[in-house]
Write a structure and sequence with these properties.
The protein is 55% helix and 18% strand. With 96 residues, the protein is α+β, with helices and mostly antiparallel strands. It has one domain (24-95): GMP Synthetase, Chain A, domain 3, CATH 3.30.300. Strand 1 and strand 2 form a beta hairpin. The N and C termini lie far apart (56 Å).
Length: 96
Amino acid sequence: MRSEKEQTLSHVIRQFVQLYKLESRLNETNAIKSWEVVVGPVIQAHTVNLRIEKGILYVKLDSDILRNELLYSKNLLLKNLNQAAKEAIITDIVFV
């Protein structure tokens, strides 16, 4: 039997995330984790590094040709990554 002060672990974690304002950082992490799903395994294999700073996703690739091709799909990638994150957290993508 639960006492009145007992809470589920998921509830306590949600409170912790809200208290320390970690929602946006968790959403950024979800967007980065969804990169492979959005772009596929071939592009993921050429992805060296991903990071988000101030709403901008920086994608480091090991192929200049692929970097150029992805520039043409930038808007679609932006839309799909934000959908995967369930929030419009990425405002731009920069390929480096």
